[in-house]
Amino acid sequence: MLKLFRRLGPWAPSIAVVLALVFAQSIADLSLPTLMSDIVDEGIAKGDIPFIWRTGLWMLLLAFAGIVSNLVGGFLASRAALGFGRELRSSIFRRVSSWSLDGIDRFGAASLVTRTTNDVTQVQQVLFMMLRMMAMAPMMAIGGLVMAVSKEPKLSWILAVSVPVLVAAISVIAAKGLPLFTAIQEKLDALNRVLREKLSGIRVIRAFDRAAYEQGRFEEANRDLTDVTLKVNRLVSLLFPFVMLVMNLTTIAIVWFGGLAIDSGDVRIGSLMAFIQYSMQIMFSVVMVSVIFIMVPRASASALRINEVLGTDDSIRDPERPATPPEPAGRVEFRDVDFRYPGAEEPALRGVSFVAEAGKVTAIIGSTGSGKTTVLNLIERFHDASSGAVLVDGGDVREYRQAELRARLGYAPQKALLFSGSVAENVRFGAPGADDAAVARALSVAQAADFVGAMEGGSGASVTQGGTNVSGGQRQRLAVARAVARDPSVYLFDDTFSALDARTDARLRAALRSETSGSTVIMVAQRVGSIMDADRIVVLDEGRVAGIGTHDELLEGNAVYREIVQSQLSAEAEA
User: Are 274 and 359 members of one domain?
Assistant: First the structure.
């Protein structure tokens, strides 16, 4: 957690002021019992009314100063803690946004959400408590101990017995609580993961009537979290009764032995009253420390999880001396590329080599799992090749800045994901500076102008999160429009036309050929009908290039391609 708190630099002035105010408040609180005892022992005992008024006025001024210090310190501590939490969440978001797909898969979406929200909240709350309670508690405890001993050293042995007992109890509970607090965060990850899967897969769950099964999974994860939380709460719940017991026994001991000392004339009443108040201040300081120690283990576990994210350097980074990219031409080349996913037993690509020329359409086809999407991911540099090289405009993609590389690419993914907002905002996602005319042109090329025009508000019509208020084919066309609006030198279409009917598919491909005449188009497809007119077709089989050529050339001389065509023609005939 100390490593995380090194990021508190911007709030150092506020923290310094908070600590100064805490010190001022502690001085005020420690002075009040002494002034009160002076009034009782000096003013009232001697009937010195002016002394009572003077001392009482000082007490009022110190009390007022303590109130002001408390209010201002609380405000600044809250501001520093909340600002730190805000910057911490931003840092996590920036780090995760810079990762490749490997980094995100390593932690998982559910865990990253928990680390960005719940874990940051835990650290934020502990920081506030540390600036207020943990900063004040040592001052009050040490100051109260000094003042109590100086007032009545004959009774200080009572504190020498009670305080170590409290410290020992807090230490034992904190030591046992740390592993449990870590387990709570892990169980919370599991609960979020199950809930996320249930919400994202609700259609599949209902289609297969597995709601009861998923409910059982959720109940199990929920029960695990509840059991660990109850175990922690049972442990923590032992602390406060024990603290109150020690405090009450301490008060009884002070009153008992103090009363005997007053009876013998060794202790004055005012001094005994001050000693009792200082004892309570010491005890309450120990209680404040106990509250901190209850929160610190869980915050420490959260801090470790946050540091894991912030300390994870992605394998895909911009080079220290990036190459200056040439003018966009659109040429893409694979040179003997091998690629293996982390943890996979077999490579996804083996010795893949081909060239996609500018102004031409290069299609990639193959059976499921042959590596088609992986090829596009390597061009986008979502992953890096295990061996070989992927070149764009003559330069290795690993030598470019990622932003400069992707500025040349227009990508329509296999799963057409839309964001909440309007249709125009989704189209402009790839080209923020696109005007209304450019948006309209992109929608027209993507064959989306008709259905968008029928929506209330046209291009200003609302799109829900994930695009659930439009059909699958409409989502795909809007994803194509988003890529077209970018006007890139290389278009990457990852089976983007799978949800389109044959007529719309043909119109869209014709419009794209006219729009992308000067660019490189790399198109992944499952259906042969979508790529028959491509200038070059790359056939993948189990991660290897099984053939390259036109439709007629491959149909005549490539057994793998011919098998794919025949299987689809047979399926269409049977249908």
Answer: no
CATH of the domain at 380: 3.40.50.300
- Kindly state the tokens that stand for 414: 């296999």
Rounded to 5°, the CA angle 484-488-490 comes to 105
Instruction: Supply the pLDDT for residue 575.
Output: 47
Asked if residue 1 belongs to a domain, the reply is no
SS (H, E, C) 70-112: HHHHHHHHHHHHHHHHHHHHHHHHHHHHHCCHHHHHHHCHHHH
* CATH number for the domain harbouring residue 67: 1.20.1560.10
Instruction: Compute the Cα dihedral for 491, 492, 497, 502 and give only its sign.
Output: positive
What number of H helices and E strands is found in the chain? Answer: 22, 12
539 forms beta bridges with: 365, 547
The residues facing 334 across adjacent strands are 354, 390
Tens of pLDDT, residues 221-237:
899 999 988 988 888 78
SS3 labels along 346-381: CCCEEEEEEEECCCCEEEEEECCCCCHHHHHHHHHC
For residue 416, the model assigns a pLDDT of 83
SS3 497: coil
Supply the DSSP symbol for 320.
S
Find the domain containing 525 and state its range: 332-574
pLDDT score at 2: 64
Same domain, 386 and 303: no
Domain count, the chain: 2
**Both 357 and 260 in a single domain?**
no
One domain, residues 345 and 283: no
Order of all β-strands in the sheet with 490-494? 409-412, 490-494, 520-524, 361-366, 536-541, 544-549
The sign of the torsion formed by the CA atoms of 536, 537, 543, 547 equals: negative
Tens of pLDDT along 453-485?
A: 888 888 889 988 778 888 888 888 999 999 999
Residues 344, 272 share a domain: no
Q: What is the pTM of this model?
A: 0.69
Distance in angstroms (rounded) separating the CA atoms of residues 575 and 569: 10
